[in-house]
Amino acid sequence: MDAKRFDLEQYRREMEALIGSGPAARLFYEALDFAVAAHEGQMRRSGDPYIIHPCSTARILAEELDIKNAEILAAALLHDTIEDVEEIVPALIREKFGQTVEAIVVGCTKVKHHSGDKQALKKLVHRQLFTGAAARPEVMIVKIADRLHNLRTLDSMPRHKRQRIADETLDFYAPLATILGLFAVKRELYNRALRNKFPKQGHKLQQHIGRLESNPALAALTAKIENALKAAGIAASVVIRTKGLWGYYDPKNHLLRTEIDIPQEILITTGERISCYQILGILNEIFPPAPRTIRDFIANPKPTGYQGLHAKAIIDGGKYLFKIRTEEMARSAHCGLVKDWNPSDRKLDRFLTELKEMFDILGSDDAVSYRDMIAASGRKEIYTYTPDGDLICLPVHSAVLDFAFHIHTDIGHSCVGAMIGKKRAEPGDMLQDGSVVRIIRQDLPVDFDLEMQSRCQTPRARSELAKAFRERIKHVAVSTGRAVLEQEMRRYGLPFDLIEHPGMEHILLYFNISSNEELLQRVGQGRIHMRELIYEISSGLLQNRDMVLHQPTGILNRIELTTIDPVVVKSSACCRPTPLDRGLVGLLSLRGISLHCKDCFQLKKLKFQREDAVEVRWRQSSTPVPKPQKFIVAEITSKYLFSRLAEGPEELRVTQVSRLSGSPDAAASTWEVQFSVANLLGLKRVIRHLDRSFLAYKFDFRQ
């Protein structure tokens, strides 16, 4: 392949035709000169001058996404300069082009130095990208255009790199383009990536798509629709679009399907909004729509701003999707909300807020799978309604809690269920298309389980749950840190009230910590080297004291908890301890406290500092047990079982007794007893009663 030559003047003329040459565009042309100088002498693998790539990225934004904003286009020109040119640093970009351009360029810049493995580096690169996009969503717009040009010039890459880039495109960039409403870009990203990911299967499928496109019956179908519209006096264009490889991709199972339900769409474009409804009426007479398939996205636009009327019909045995739009709606469908990008536009408020929330959690929470969240956000929608008839558009498989958080954050946090029609649903229950949902709330926020986050599909719900989980972990970490630091200082004869000393500000500054609360939180998460902290406190606040720190010996620091919240307190799978066991060791971490039995074989293999582990006890009468418990008892008569239950402690509240095996006439059976208790002390008394009753029982504690 012959290398291209970059003609700067020709490129300048082409961009002037797209964005003009007035004062508003001056920043772009200054960035153009800067980028050309920065990348001088650099070549791509294809042998082309490197400057072609950033210039093409900027042109995609201006020409195909209708972005005229000079700062975004300038950032596109400069997006590789910090990464590829050693002399260029963020401060220089800020000095020459302003903070906005700097923020976008920094957000697009990959991590260079990392000591971990390739997989860890890949995750770090992605999370840094999401963090940048959370502050400036324009980062993701530039990266999508960057990826599109890379795919268009992928032929010069070796096969294994083409495969890697295709995988990343299918996992991240194509679904993100869908979320942003960049449907034309989405289709091209998917098509190019799939051709590289599945070369043989993709080629066969492309032949099948070609046969569909050349079907002679399509011309007759188009003519029939055009004649009907013409007879009604409606001017419109009719185009039948055959879905490309993108329509056959199954992202959940990462494969190409050989057939799909609706392989072709009929696009009808007209001049006026009222004509869209008239066309729908005419089509309904000619081709009766499939039940419950008419969607009005004109009166109720999608979150991306997409508008149009959709209807499905079966014509001559084949399924088709009609999309009826005005010319302006059709143009907007290509660009989504990116068209004439203006973050201060009120129409963007809710969409941008949810987008930033998603990017924020993707960049900050390792516990969340960004692949799952992006895939969920880019899925097809279901359409649900409030009791007042307001449309709520959600990803397929969304839960009641997604609906609640979509309405308002406070409603989500206090949701205990919903009424769907006349049926009661739990917060994690899946919604169906067309559901009318009335949320049921309680006065106080609900402490949701960790599994609820995986059931939710929307970025807002997952983001809010993650924030709530972090707050619950932080609350326990601060109290744990206080207990640990107080005991550790006592070991060295230091009064705990030293942490309120004015000189503590200098110690906090040394550890790059903003407050005492953050200090205690870090101690409670095992993120502070305790000997170093004690040394700084003693030498900095007690200057007359000559202190030599020796590694202390003896028992672990002890903490007392009043919660069994599984978000905060996690029982390790190796020894499965419960709060009723004695001699428990807790390892402190960012994700909470991991419990082990003191003689756990796995614990003995782990390497940790003494101050990073604590002896864990509970204030049993102050620790609620919110979930119902159960035990199974074998080979016992009903008479003996019920007599033992009747003699149980007053804390035992039996809710259900079920026979698991044996007939009613059998002398002995196996039973399951479900019960509830108010607190750990009550549970302890119940277990003690079962032990004294000499029952052969099995009890699994539920946190």
Helix/strand class: alpha+beta
How would the global form be characterised? Answer: globular
How far apart the termini lie comes to 64 Å
Radius of gyration using CA atoms only: 32 Å
Largest sheet: 5 strands, mixed
Q: Round the mean pLDDT to the nearest integer and report it.
A: 88
Count of helix runs: 27
Numbering strands along the chain, what is their spatial order in the largest sheet? Answer: 1-4-7-6-5
> Could you name the ranges where pLDDT drops below 50 across 5 or more consecutive residues?
none
Strand content: 15-25%
The overall strand count is: 21
Helix content: 40-55%
Write the layout of secondary structure elements.
Elements: H1 8-19, H2 26-38, H3 52-64, H4 70-78, H5 81-84, H6 90-97, H7 99-108, H8 118-135, H9 138-152, H10 159-179, H11 183-197, H12 199-213, H13 217-231, E1 236-242, E2 249-250, E3 255-256, E4 264-270, H14 273-286, E5 295-296, E6 309-315, E7 318-326, H15 327-335, H16 349-364, H17 370-377, E8 381-385, E9 391-395, H18 400-407, H19 409-413, E10 415-420, E11 423-425, E12 437-441, H20 451-455, H21 459-491, H22 504-510, H23 516-524, H24 530-541, E13 557-561, E14 569-571, E15 584-589, E16 592-597, H25 601-605, E17 613-618, E18 629-636, H26 638-646, E19 653-661, E20 669-676, H27 680-692, E21 697-699
Parallel strand pairs: 4-7, 13-17, 14-16
Antiparallel strand pairs: 1-4, 2-3, 5-6, 6-7, 8-9, 10-11, 10-12, 15-16, 15-17, 18-20, 18-21, 19-20
